[in-house]
Input
Amino acid sequence: MALDGVLLDIDGTLVLSNDAHAQAWVEAFTEYGYMITFEQVRSLIGMGADQVIPRLVPELNSETGVGKQIASYRRELILNKFGKTLVSANGSRELVQKMQDNGLHLMIATSATEQEMDMLLKVAQVDDLLQEFTTSADAEQSKPKPDIVEAALNKSQLSPDRAIMLGDTPYDIESAGKAGVGVIAFRCGGFSDEQLSNAVAIYDDPADLLQHYDQSPLSS
Output
């Protein structure tokens, strides 16, 4: 069936930010006396704070007390420290332009805050191209729960069977799958092909997908 639109993840998909997010979590937990290693948190990147914090420290949550402070400090680190070091994934702008030229409705599906998203879109060099989005305010729970994908479908008025998502983590694939949407996955987020095995297709990065666009699920 022909596609009407594409849902877009940003972190790890259009911007090479997953390692930075992991390091920000390490520093945020350390600030509040919790020794969490980079390796522990790196495998969870793609989830939001509501998922990450209790998985690492079960007695904490992102809504109250120290857990909320850790989540807030991590956000400050991304905006004020790590954001300055981020770079676009190869081919992000060109792929977005290609999809738009082909008449696809593009909707950002991320649980980043609006502040983070504004920064990330600038890094990806697509802030002038993409104006429709979801943020953490649109979902009760982050990926791998389906809330963000469902919110993006509702906002864009896209039918799940006529949309596809671009993502980079197994949590994108799980979240979208629960909402009835297939995922094209990118390796540039740092996850293995085995971890991304439930994707409908896997490419190195946006540039790789662009190079093979006519043979990809986007051309169907």
In short: The radius of gyration is 16 Å.
